[in-house]
Design a protein that fits this description.
Aspartate Aminotransferase, domain 2, Aspartate Aminotransferase, domain 1, seven-stranded mixed beta sheet, five-stranded mixed beta sheet, 14 helices, about 15% strand, globular, binds pyridoxal-5'-phosphate
Length: about 400
């Protein structure tokens, strides 16, 4: 497979400007249908529906352009685009399992991935076991029926990292497919397919889009897997990305490397600040030297971006609330990966009725460092420490 530089992929690959009146920015094909001059042309298109525009649930030129770029960035052969990351994850897992099969999944994946595996796929007789991601634990969990090892490295709240290459070497000889959620690192910082994974999934809502204005998902895999998934999960469940969102996400992709670099610089600066703060018990950031898997993280990833969490040195929910309410730059919201800095405290998951059951510590706060200056972000945190009286 030909490999291109990231710059070339993002700015030039698949643009086909001559086909679109040489417009610099690609047009948006909102059309749901594509028309044909003769029945022969129609027949040809229908028989190549996975690559020829026929009906937009299958193929649309704007989606093709974005999917070529994402496949090339991941070093994969092909890509399918979905309405959300969750739709891409569901299609990836469902494509590999049937009644009676077994999935091994890392602990604490994205919350709706856990629900898919535990609740929804359970209805269809698919079993799941959760692992800490160590080679020993995964090898103990393998059964004859195991078809998928599902990784999310790092995960998006406490950032435990899995050794993709070693795990692929362990499970692939047993016919188990490895799926990796690569939303945190993006292909700019980590390429799971090159380490042996079979399928990479993304929430394109996060860094790819980068502007908090479009939902999307991507699935990158071999040409053969794409054909299978296209005919089954993609066309039957119909969770296709809209042409408008494909265009917005393509626009976001233009600035991905530079945004990621700025988020990473801010993430490092904020992690260093928090790591030496007397009221912080622990910082969870794969590139902070205190992170237990620092050496694995820094050898497997080129950077860590702007998402991290930390534990305030208090069990008092009222103080945590006051800390979070005092933040002005870090907006209280879910998600991450865009221009604006965000704060998602685990305290938001706590209500009086589930307090005991909650597995997160009350003082655990996740923040995403966006594109503001790191000085400003640190000042915002400094002010919250002061105002909360912690
Ligand atoms: C947000 C997220 C998802 C789900 O993506 P949606 O686009 O919200 O459906 C999956 N994985 C990770 C790591 C995420 O952060």
């Amino acid at each position: 497979m030909q490999s291109y530089s990231e710059d070339y992929i993002i700015n030039h690959l698949g643009e086909n400007r001559a086909e679109y009146l040489n417009s610099g920015s690609p047009p948006i094909f909102t059309s749901s249908i594509f028309t044909f001059g003769t029945i022969d042309e129609m027949r040809d298109a229908l028989h190549n529906e996975s690559s020829t525009p026929f009906y937009t649930r299958g193929t649309n030129p704007g989606l093709t352009m974005l999917s070529e770029k994402l496949a090339a960035l991941e070093g994969g052969e092909s890509c399918l685009l979905f309405a959300t990351g969750s739709a891409a994850i569901a299609a990836a897992i469902c494509s590999q399992v049937k009644y009676g099969d077994h999935v091994i999944c890392i602990e604490k994946p994205y919350s709706w991935t856990a629900k898919l595996l535990q609740n929804w796929l359970g209805k269809f007789g698919v079993k799941v076991s959760f692992t800490d991601g160590s080679l020993e634990s995964v090898s103990n969990l393998i059964e004859n029926e195991t078809k998928v090892l599902y990784l999310e490295t790092p995960n998006s709240f406490t950032f435990e990292v899995q050794d993709i290459k070693a795990l692929c070497e362990l499970v692939k000889p047993k016919g188990i497919k490895v799926i990796v959620d690569n939303s945190y690192a993006t292909p700019i910082y980590q390429k799971p397919l090159e380490l042996g994974a079979d399928i990479v999934v993304h929430s394109a809502t996060k860094y790819f889009s980068g502007h908090s204005d479009a939902l999307g998902g991507a699935l990158i895999c071999s040409r053969a897997d794409r054909e299978e998934i296209f005919k089954a999960e993609y066309m039957t469940l119909g969770g296709t990305m809209s042409p408008m969102n494909a265009w917005l996400i393509l626009r976001g992709l233009r600035t991905l490397p530079i945004r990621l670099q700025k988020s990473h610089e801010n993430g490092m600066a904020v992690a260093n600040y928090l790591g030496s703060h007397p009221k912080v018990k622990k910082v969870n950031y794969p590139f902070h030297p205190s992170f237990p898997q620092f050496s694995l993280a820094t050898s497997q990833m080129k950077g860590a971006g702007g998402l991290l969490s930390f534990e305030l040195d208090t069990e008092d929910l009222a103080i945590v609330d006051k800390f979070c309410n005092s933040l002005k730059y870090f907006l209280l919201a879910c998600s991450w990966g865009s221009y604006e800095s965000l704060c998602f405290p685990s305290a938001a998951l706590i209500t009086s009725s589930n307090y005991q059951k909650n597995s997160f510590k009350p003082g655990l706060v996740r923040i995403y460092c966006g594109l503001e200056s790191s000085d400003q972000l640190i000042l915002d945190l400094e002010n919250a420490f002061f105002s909360s009286g912690i």
